[in-house]
Amino acid sequence: MGGTICLPVMGARDSIRTAVRDVVPPAGLTRALAVQAMVFAVGTGLFQAGSAVFFTRALGLSPAQVGLGLSLAAGASLLGTVPLGGLTDRYGPQRVWIVCLLLDAALFAAYPFVGGVAGFLAVVIALAVTGAATGVARQVYSINVLRPEERVTAMAYQRSSLNVGFGVGALISGLVLAVDTIWAYRGMVWFIAVVFLVTAGFVRRLPRLPEVTRPAEPMSRLAVLRDRPFMAVALLSGLLTAHQTLYLTVMPLWILTHTDAPKTIIAGLVLLNTVLIVLFQVRASRGADDAPGAARASRRGAVLIAAFCVVLPISGATRGPLTVAVLVAAATLLILAELIESAGAWGLTATLPPAAQRGAYVGAFGLGSQVQFLIAPAGLTALGVSTGGWGWYPAAAIFTLVGLAIVPAVTRAERTPRLPGVAKSSDSVTLVP
């Protein structure tokens, strides 16, 4: 009798231990990287949630002026990604990371004193440039400092922690918006400046890296753009990041215009996304540590996006609770696609770039997702929403083709020589005490 009760209890305990292990990173460097990610995300999450009101209420800008500034900032980030990655190669990812965080803190501290559109444009563009450099430096440092078999898992823990931080930041923004005073908004950006200073302190305490051995004839910082096999992979992988656009933009528009579901379900689906990423990102990253495994993960992500495109339009023909069930099923498919595709992208950036040019290559890899952000919002909205529903099926075909193409593209890129005389990307480094 006692034994029959003990078995389920032990099974439940094992399940709980596994769940905790997939959320809480192991002690050591992986946990340190995850903690800094969470702290950093509190600041970025707070600003993402409260920036629109801050720009209009605290700075007195019009929506058109805010839109212009954000568009110019996106353009600056796009143009600067590869050169900024080159700076990471030249000066080291940790140094660039710390300097950019300190610049971020100074820029946020200066935000309340911005006068007029010109000052706003200067700050928002500078923040976009430092943000792009920070993203590249953080990823390159994670790749360089960890053993090959740890890299993708560590990035998964960081992403899980980022989502926790984003959630905390969003909650704080709710308090700021509830107070709704000029000083509350000024306090918000000053608090964000402090968060970035604290993050810089975390990064400074991380282990230092040695200099990477460079070839006798260094490549131009833009030479990566002529590496066609790699750029083909970057483009295909970047197109798969359309899951972000589908989840945050296109699916909500579909729900509002083509279903009888209550508007509140949109917020519920965003919460579902956050929870599932926190709980399952690490588990979904397994098997993507090498280039073939990362390619297969990317292909699975593409198939899941295509499945989402087939399931979602069903909600336009259902009613009541069945509509909600279809939307939750479609959203779950897209979240799984996001979990698996993200792991694939991390595996590709960890294995394909040469060590001495890793910053430039990681920066160039991000161009694929930048292209997606330029074409996907308008293109997928036109296909999925404006057609009334039939356009979802060509969209599914597009993602299926991307999935079919990415594995042979990765195979070709892996076999193409990059830099002669440079250590392979998978080589680990010895930390400087």
TrEMBL record:
Name this protein carries in UniProt: Major Facilitator Superfamily protein
Sorted UniProt keywords: Cell membrane, Membrane, Transmembrane, Transmembrane helix, Transport
Lineage top rank: taxon: Bacteria
Family matches, as Pfam families: MFS_1
Localization per record: Cell membrane
PROSITE patterns in the cross-refs: MFS (PS50850)
InterPro entries in UniProt: MFS, MFS_dom, MFS_trans_sf, MFS_Transporters
Broad class of where this protein is predominantly found: membrane
Coiled-coil spans in chain: none
Alphabetized Gene3D superfamilies for the sequence: MFS general substrate transporter like domains
Keyword DNA damage (UniProt): no
Natural source organism: Micromonospora tulbaghiae
Membrane topology summary: Multi-pass membrane protein
Major facilitator superfamily (MFS) profile domain boundaries: 29-415
Keyword Secreted: no
Transmembrane residue ranges: 37-60, 66-84, 162-183, 189-207, 228-255, 261-280, 301-318, 324-348, 360-385, 391-410
